[in-house]
Amino acid sequence: MLMTDIIAAKRDGGELTREQIEFFVRGVTDGSIPDYQSAALLMAIVWRGMNRRETLDLTLAMMNSGDTLDLSSISGVKADKHSTGGVGDKTSLALLPMVAAQGVRMAKMSGRGLGHTGGTLDKLESFPGFSSALTHEQFLNQVERVGFAIAGQTADLDPADKKLYALRDVTGTVQSIPLIVSSIMSKKLAAGADVIVLDVKTGSGAFMKTEADALTLAREMVEIGRLAGRKTVACITDMDQPLGNAVGNALEVKEALALLKGEYHGDLEELCLTLGSCILTGAGAAKDEAEARAKLERGIADGSALEKFAEFIEAQGGDRRAVYDESLLPAAPVRYEARAESSGFVRHIDAQGVGLVSMHLGGGRETAESGIDLAVGVELHKKRGDAVAAGESVATIHARDEAGAESAARLLLAAYDIGAEPPEAAPFVKAIVRED
Ligand code: URA
């Protein structure tokens, strides 16, 4: 088989056979296909697309390019969650203990942040001693015993995606539904869960800018999950402004803890209840959404979700006392109020802009190797639709020094659009896409 024939077939709008797709993925994984040929095929796929059969074959070939996790030794139904990513997205920190406290086990592989979005592993390292480097056996044992675990993705899981994603990133070939679907779903399928819940973000701060594109992506992922034999649900949710109020590693941990303590109410809570309900109903732990929500809310009210989180932190080497005593978490020495220059209503907050403020303060990575400051970030006091008076604080900047705080405040105010009229109300959860 020749790679040049495969490239030409797709360039001319043809359908690739399963053998051709497997040949490509094998060659990418073992390095026998040079990057220029892979890049040419990726660009042909961007232009010509792939039908569902091709997308499924690509997904399965990528899933099988490395190790796959066998979770069958763990009792009960196992669930996993994926988010297409966004600013202030600390959902996993609260969602996993909420679900595990209801008896549904969750096995999650997570990543580190790069650029303006933070990674779950970085956030968790706010707990002194916490480690995400679990062996396969430790991971399985912890999911069984505690109810959930969050580990770094091993190099052996889906190596084809690692190579292809790096190449797509530098060749303008990220934006393609079949390539995004196969990238996300191959990793989720390799991670072994029976129930997969996908949080597909839409809006200016999201990967999918429009609701229509988010819906297309969600439908495709749900269908590929179903064809691969996993129960898959996708929620389409708003990322037209940061999620919750905190952006920055330790600040986001504190916000997730506030939710688990019943002290936070807002879009993050709504998201956790929505995704959590999809998981509980998908796993058969609740008969419908109302029952699932009631169980999740009870787990917050009676402290069991918070205690589950403390158990998890301790199991992964972290200091569980920090779950109950936030003074043990990193805190920045300087706090600075970013004050509105005019009165009106918050019409829009540029999520990416807020993410960049946090990065500017040292809370994000510019390259995969750079270190990060866990303590810094931004705490928003005003979100879309809120009234604001000139001189009132819209956000508190948490910084290392005054100079950094002042320039961050200027950048932050530029991310706020304040106008005379309130914006039109928009639902936070736009749609839920199920198999049926
Ligand atoms: N996230 C992924 O993991 N892959 C993509 O292609 C896009 C977003």
TrEMBL record:
Catalyzed reactions: uridine + phosphate = alpha-D-ribose 1-phosphate + uracil; thymidine + phosphate = 2-deoxy-alpha-D-ribose 1-phosphate + thymine; 2'-deoxyuridine + phosphate = 2-deoxy-alpha-D-ribose 1-phosphate + uracil
Keyword Glycosyltransferase attributed: yes
Keywords per UniProt: Glycosyltransferase, Transferase
Assigned EC number: 2.4.2.2
UniProt GO molecular function: 1,4-alpha-oligoglucan phosphorylase activity; thymidine phosphorylase activity
Domain Pyrimidine nucleoside phosphorylase C-terminal intervals: 345-419
GO BP term, example: pyrimidine nucleobase metabolic process
One of the record's GO cellular component terms: cytosol
Pfam families named among the record's database cross-references: Glycos_trans_3N (PF02885), Glycos_transf_3 (PF00591), PYNP_C (PF07831)
Family of the protein in this entry: Belongs to the thymidine/pyrimidine-nucleoside phosphorylase family.
Function noted in UniProt: Catalyzes phosphorolysis of the pyrimidine nucleosides uridine, thymidine and 2'-deoxyuridine with the formation of the corresponding pyrimidine base and ribose-1-phosphate.
Oligomeric and partner information: Homodimer.
Identification of the protein by name: Pyrimidine-nucleoside phosphorylase
Organism for this UniProt entry: Candidatus Scatomorpha merdipullorum
